[in-house]
Amino acid sequence: MSTTIDRxxxxxxxxxxxxxAARHMSFTRAxxxxxxxxxxxxxxxxxxxxxxxxxxxxxxxxMLALTDSGQYLLSHVTPSFDRLIKALDGxxxxxxxxxxxxxxxxxxxxxxxxxxxxxxxxxGNIRVExxxxxxxxxxxxxxxxxxxxxxxxxxxSEVMDLxxxxxxxxxxxxxxxxxxxxxxxxxxxxRHAVVHxxxxxxxxxxxxxxxxxxxxxxxxxxxxxxxxxxxxxxFVMREGGLIVADRHLAHDDIEAGRLVAxxxxxxxxxxxxxxxxxxxxxxxxxxxxxxxxxxxxxxxATRQSA
Length: 306
Prior knowledge:
The structure is a single chain. By secondary structure, the chain is of the alpha/beta class. The protein contains 11 helices and 10 strands. The chain has helices at 12-24, 27-34, 38-52, 68-91, 106-111, 113-122, 185-191, 205-213, 229-239, 251-255, 285-304, and strands at residues 57-60, 63-66, 99-103, 127-131, 146-151, 159-171, 194-197, 224-226, 242-246, 267-277. The strands form 2 sheets. Strands 4-3-5-10-6-9-7-8 form an 8-stranded mixed sheet, with helices on both faces. Strands 1-2 form a two-stranded antiparallel sheet. Strand 7, helix 8 and strand 8 (224-226) form a beta-alpha-beta unit. Helix 1 (12-24) packs across helix 4 (68-91) and helix 2 packs across helix 3 (38-52). The relative contact order is 0.13.
């Protein structure tokens, strides 16, 4: 019959030793990281295995491998330690409620974030730190309070709010369609260079989606490739070329006449931009302010570009 571990006897030192050993896959390197002896790490891990009643490591000579139970425990221990560190950081010399660490995709940060960030600073009196990771799928193993991610819709334990679903369309400079009357994509492809954005679906995925929607069987493999939509759109705006990109990202440039979307048709890629929050952070005033401003901003933006 299993028994519940008493919180008063929670083996925190053993859990620290286990997490370090699992992270480094070595008792020796774990000991160096924790500033203790190898025998101390080994002793703590053995103690933890006695407490839970199962083996956490498969010991093969000097090699370590996690058992299924070890993998399961690690998936809970590491996020728990990360959240404890985040909480301690948050109260160390500052009011946690007035601080936001935000992760944003690079193109989103360049093209959409400035008004929201300024509102957080000037209206919400919130201190803001921003990072722009190229790939981020959740808030696990991070110290960020909130994030915007480019993702397919998915089930998650985090709060996931849709900002908009990506709508792909052809975008170019206005002068590239002048005098054409009705835009002719075949003719445009003969005249102008093709620009790609490398993304989750591959470097040619946006063009494939759009051409399929247009009913055109064309294989486009050549062209200039950028790693962010922002850089690709900036290049097209200055140097010319044809890009298939999300019309929402290009909304302000289209409104200002710097770029045009000559075809009415759009193609949905299945990806979108989502806000992510931890459920336990939803009552923080800074998080509520950021979320409210984002909802207001993108309700208006998507409606205007529809």
